[in-house]
Amino acid sequence: MIKAFSKITKATKSTSRSARYTTKNSRRKKNSQPIGPVNSFYIDGLTHDGKGVARASGKVTFIAGALPKETVQAQVFKSNRRFDEAKLVAVVEASEYRVNPPCAHYETCGGCSFQHLEIKQQRVSKKLWLQGQLRKVCEPDDISLLADAALGYRRRARLSVRVNQGQLALGFRALGSNKIVSIDNCIVLTPRLQQLLGALKTALVHDDSLAGLADKIGHIELLEDDKGASILFRLTANLSSDYQERWAQWAQPQNIDLYWQFAEQDSALVAPEAKRYFNVEGLKLNYHPQDFIQVNGDMNQKMIAQAMDWLAPNKDDTIVDLFCGVGNFSLPLASRAKKVVGVEVQESMVAAGIANAKTNNLDNLSFIAADLTKAANKEISSLGVTKVLLDPPRAGAFEFLPTIVKLKPKSILYVSCDAATLARDAEYLVSKGYKVMRGAMMDMFPQTAHVETMLLFSK
């Protein structure tokens, strides 16, 4: 039986700290070749971003939305010397792991890429791919799995907004375009944020006293933490105090905090008492609503617990936490170690970390601002470091690895949001005498192809 299928999928980028270590990527000119004829393909593999892999006449064809062991019909829309890319037209023989995507917007939204694959098999596929990436530094059996809920996990989301001829589009970008897919719900958001999304859309569309805001919004950020739920409006034009007051009145009975970032501001102005917070291991971490935090709160708790178990900090340890943010790992480490120093490039987050150490009475914890694409300053080099934890952005930490090696830590715990740069960095550490002792694929973003990884190195 032939099943119609017209979606090409892609992975959602996780909320990350890449903006703090930006690099410009060159843009390649798009190939606008015509759509080829519909052909039959047998899928024998899966790429890291969820595309089926077919091989015919010695050439590889990538087909988004196709799964291993399926026979599909597809049209080539882009041809290169080494491979083709094709659009899935129909599934002729379906995989036993194919499921109906639970999201009504799946075929148009550019978000989740794996909802057509059963969740256990999503994790099997991700783990297999990760094992392949790390094959030069560890054995497949060294990689375990850390996972939690498959839906309703995301505590932060950025919504795009557009008003065209009086019609409001509120949602996420469509696959491969700037078009906004207007959504009614997003099932990977926490239940509270799903509710908030519905209330927000109703207010913007149906409440005339509030709707005048829509054409002044660049984007909207939804956020839930232990303080509750909030909305941040990033504006492209000035908004009268009257409109701000109307929205404040709308938010109050719903117990929602509002934040405003005006066109001339680099970030929202937030009073100290209006800062956000979340808890880890009984420790309270305050942060600005636009600071980086892990968007999967439950997985963050599991990740921290695993990090503490693997790195095993004790009262003889002096530990450096690199790319520390507001102290997500630093505070739990400091509750166990002799001394902890958090290092972060963004000075506002360093200030937040210092405040968090004080709030939690951790006098053995300090924070410094430093550019971790450069060699360490004397303050870090003279600490007598015994262990290192690092959680870099997608670009990895290659420039700083020689400094880490010079510190001669007994153990290094590396948390990564990009397996390719992790593999590169891991090979360097192994070449300098370190060995991978344990590893984990952490399913921080179910329904997407994104992979988070934790590796423990010992000398």
Overview of this structure, please?
It contains 9 helices and 22 strands. With about 450 residues, the protein is an alpha/beta fold. The protein folds into 3 domains: about 90 residues, Nucleic acid-binding proteins (OB fold (Dihydrolipoamide Acetyltransferase, E2P), Beta Barrel), CATH 2.40.50.140; about 200 residues, Vaccinia Virus protein VP39 (Rossmann fold), CATH 3.40.50.150; about 110 residues, OB fold (Dihydrolipoamide Acetyltransferase, E2P) (Beta Barrel). Strand 11 and strand 12 form a beta hairpin. The longest helix has 16 residues. The termini are far apart.
Keywords, separated by commas or semicolons:
22 strands, 459 residues, 8-stranded mixed sheet, 22% helix, OB fold (Dihydrolipoamide Acetyltransferase, E2P), flat, disordered N terminus, 3 domains, 6-stranded mixed sheet, alpha/beta
Please render the helix and strand layout as text:
Layout lengths: L2 E2 L33 E9 L4 E6 L2 E6 L6 E9 L3 E11 L25 H15 L9 E4 L9 E9 L2 E7 L6 E3 L8 H16 L10 E9 L2 E8 L5 H11 L4 E6 L14 E5 L2 E5 L9 H15 L6 E5 L7 H5 L4 E6 L2 H13 L5 E5 L8 H4 L5 E4 L10 H7 L3 E6 L2 H13 L3 E8 L9 E7 L1
The CATH level-2 architecture of the largest domain is identified as 3-Layer(aba) Sandwich
Average of pLDDT: 90
CATH topology of the largest domain: Rossmann fold
β-strand amount:
25-35%
Number of strands: 22
Q: How would you characterize the largest beta sheet?
A: 8 strands, mixed
First-to-last CA distance: 56 Å
Question: How would the global form be characterised?
Answer: flat
Total DSSP helices: 9
Radius of gyration: 24 Å
Range of helix content: 10-25%
When the domains are counted, the total is 3
Q: Order of strands across the biggest sheet?
A: 7-21-22-20-19-16-17-18
Counting helices, strands and paired strands, the structural category is alpha/beta
CATH homologous superfamily annotation of the largest domain: Vaccinia Virus protein VP39
Please write the CATH class name of the largest domain: Alpha Beta
Q: Regarding quaternary structure, how should these chains be classified?
A: single chain
Low-confidence stretches: 1-16, 18-32
